[in-house]
Structures are given as C-alpha cells and as structure tokens.
C-alpha cells in the first residue's frame, strides 16, 4: 500500500515517521522548507516520554513544490491530510491528482473537515480519523516530541471511520497502518467521535492559547479549569442538539461534564477528578497546538473549534456565549491587539 501524508507536522510527522519505521511505503509532504530539508538530510527524530520511544527514522520527504514528481510514480492508495484545518482545501487539491482509482483520503485533523475534502474528491473516497490524547509537537525542523504516554488496550489513540458508519476493508487496512504509531481501531460512530474530540479541543486549545498556560497549569488550577469545564458544557449541549452520539471524553461522561459546567456538584466532582488524573500523566511541558501557534506567530484553528461551536449553536438556538467570547479573545491575541496571560479570563 502506497501512502502519502500531507502535512508532516506534529501529528502527521509522528504517524508518517512510525509508518516509515515499520517499512510502509510512505511519503511525507510539507510546506516548511527547513523541516523538509532536515528530514531529507538527517531523518525524522521522534521522541516520547521514555527512552524506548526515541528514534531517528529515515523518511522520504517532499516539499509541496516537489509533489508534482508523484506523477511519475505508482498512484497513492491512501492520502492522509494532517494539515491545519484552514489548509485543507489546497492540501486535498494538491494530492487528489495522484490518487489511485480506488484511492482514498483520510482527514487526520481537528474539527470536521470531511465535508470540505468530499467537495473535492467525493464522499465515497473520504474517511475521518480522530487522534485522542496524543500530545505531539514539531518543536524544531525534523524533530517531533510526544509529551504523554502511549495508548493502551484501555485507551485507543486513533479511531478511523467511514462517513456512512459501516466497517469496511479499507477502514480496517488504514487502522492497521495507524497501529504502527499507536493503538487504533475502526469506529462506526465517526461523527459522534468527531464532536467529542471537538469538545476536548474547545475546552483546552484556545484557553491555553490566550492564557499562555501549559496543559497542567490549565487543568490543575481552579480558575482556568472552571472556564474549561463551562466551555465543554456548551459544546456538549450543541452536539447533543445536533443529534450526535457523544462518547466519553478522556474518561469524562458527556452528560456529567455538561452538567458540571451548569453547576451540578456530582458532575463537577467527576470532571475535576478526570482532568486532574490526565494532568498527572502528562509531561510538564505539554502545550496544545493552538498555544504553540500563538507562541510562533501563526494563524490558529479557532474558527474551526470554538468559533464553529458558536456558529452551530447560533444556527440551532443553543446559547454558547463562553465559546463565542473565547473565540473573540483568541482572534484578538492572534492579531496582536491583546497580550496572552491568565488575566484575559478574569470575569468570563
């Protein structure tokens, strides 16, 4: 099976690197010239929380400008889109001409980008994949670190699913590919899984971005944790109203988490215990991707996370004032009209 990963950043590089390490015919395509050149010359350095997880892997890397060379080769069976959400369209357009007749495209991204991909290649060629508690960062060219423990039989990191919800041979084959990076399985509930992951992103990414708090500082301190729980509550209520079958989110029951944000004591105790438990398994330097983006002066995915939740809530009449406010604050920090710091959440 011939694989291409478009977007060899934290998640894409980590997955593609481990596939290469296992002998899969995989090509990593990225737009950062220094990163591509480093991978070509020195391989891809993969690091984890234990010494046994550290590897330097020879990989085939192409800059986006060189993707046209794929026309001279056998076509791509599986194209994995692992770019930021706002880069989905060009990334899909880039790889679509090189797909095999039965080739497919997998969205290994935040939010719900399958529809945009389907608008280019058709729904029948699209699958989605959720990455749960993977915490990876491309911290310099050619170097990716993972800041949380590997998955296990009790925690599946990758869930791959067809848009129609059936289990297919190709979904199973892609799950086997992802297994080289960490535990994976096929889901029959792609949309419920997608929105559940969106809830986790909504309660964490933007909050760390505007406060400059790392994951543990955010979850172990009462004030930001309370904002986080309320963000999740709004997102869950929107997902429920849209009809999604939500699943436990890092051990948190969706209904209990929603009630926690609405002031329910039992729900709050449940949410706090789970959030603290996850924090105790993280490396101290773990930061969500949006916080990394703000630090490096890059565009964020807020439009596709808290912004999306606020828009969907408005469409169906579910109030999401906190998600709307957080999205507003992220955009202000992104534009440079507000400075990140814990004080930005005072009073919200």
UniProtKB/TrEMBL annotation:
UniProt KW keywords? NADP, Oxidoreductase, Pantothenate biosynthesis
Q: Which reaction does it catalyse?
A: (R)-pantoate + NADP(+) = 2-dehydropantoate + NADPH + H(+)
Q: Where is the Ketopantoate reductase C-terminal domain?
A: 189-334
Supply one GO BP term.
pantothenate biosynthetic process
Q: Is NAD found in the keyword set? A: no
What Enzyme Commission number does this protein have?
A: 1.1.1.169
- GO molecular function (one): NADP binding
Q: Per the database record, which ranges form the Ketopantoate reductase N-terminal domain?
A: 3-147
Q: Does the keyword 4Fe-4S apply?
A: no
Classification via Gene3D superfamilies: N-(1-d-carboxylethyl)-l-norvaline Dehydrogenase, domain 2 (1.10.1040.10), NAD(P)-binding Rossmann-like Domain (3.40.50.720)
Q: Which GO terms describe its cellular component?
A: cytoplasm
Q: What InterPro entries would the database entry show? A: 6-PGluconate_DH-like_C_sf, 6PGD_dom2, ApbA, Ketopantoate_reductase, KPA_reductase, KPR_N, NAD(P)-bd_dom_sf
Q: Which pathway does this polypeptide act in? A: Cofactor biosynthesis; (R)-pantothenate biosynthesis; (R)-pantoate from 3-methyl-2-oxobutanoate: step 2/2
Instruction: Enumerate the PANTHER family for this protein.
Output: 2-DEHYDROPANTOATE 2-REDUCTASE, 2-DEHYDROPANTOATE 2-REDUCTASE-RELATED
| Functional summary from the UniProt entry | Catalyzes the NADPH-dependent reduction of ketopantoate into pantoic acid.
Please report which protein family the annotation says this sequence is part of: Belongs to the ketopantoate reductase family.
Query: What protein name is recorded for this chain?
Result: 2-dehydropantoate 2-reductase
């Amino acid at each position: 099976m011939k694989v291409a990963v478009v977007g060899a950043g934290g998640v894409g590089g980590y997955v593609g690197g481990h596939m290469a390490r296992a002998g899969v015919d995989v090509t990593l395509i990225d737009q950062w010239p220094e990163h591509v050149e480093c991978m070509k010359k020195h391989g891809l350095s993969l690091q984890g929380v234990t010494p046994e997880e550290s590897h330097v892997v020879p990989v085939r890397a192409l800059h986006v400008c060189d993707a046209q060379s794929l026309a001279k080769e056998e076509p791509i069976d599986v194209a994995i889109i692992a770019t930021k959400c706002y880069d989905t369209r060009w990334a899909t357009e880039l790889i679509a001409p090189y797909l095999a007749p039965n080739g497919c495209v997998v969205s290994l991204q935040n939010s719900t980008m399958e529809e945009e991909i389907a608008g280019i290649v058709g729904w029948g060629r699209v699958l989605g994949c959720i990455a749960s508690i993977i915490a990876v960062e491309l911290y310099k060219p050619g170097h990716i670190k993972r800041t949380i423990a590997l998955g296990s039989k009790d925690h599946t990191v990758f869930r791959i699913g067809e848009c129609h919800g059936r289990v297919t041979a190709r979904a199973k084959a892609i799950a086997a590919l992802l297994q080289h990076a960490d535990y994976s399985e096929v889901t029959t509930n792609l949309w419920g899984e997608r929105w559940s992951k969106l809830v986790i992103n909504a309660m964490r990414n933007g909050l760390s971005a505007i406060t400059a708090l790392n994951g543990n500082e955010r979850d172990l301190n009462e004030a930001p944790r309370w904002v986080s729980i309320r963000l999740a509550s709004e997102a869950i209520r929107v997902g429920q109203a849209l009809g999604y079958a939500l699943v436990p989110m890092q051990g948190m029951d969706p209904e209990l988490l929603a009630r926690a944000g609405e002031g329910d004591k039992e729900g709050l105790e449940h949410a706090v215990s789970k959030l603290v438990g996850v924090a105790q398994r993280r490396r101290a330097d773990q930061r969500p991707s949006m916080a990394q983006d703000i630090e490096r002066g890059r565009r964020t995915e807020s439009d596709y996370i808290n912004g999306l939740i606020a828009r969907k809530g408005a469409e169906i009449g579910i109030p999401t004032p906190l998600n709307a406010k957080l999205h507003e604050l992220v955009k202000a920090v992104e534009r440079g009209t507000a400075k990140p710091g814990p004080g930005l959440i005072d009073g919200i």
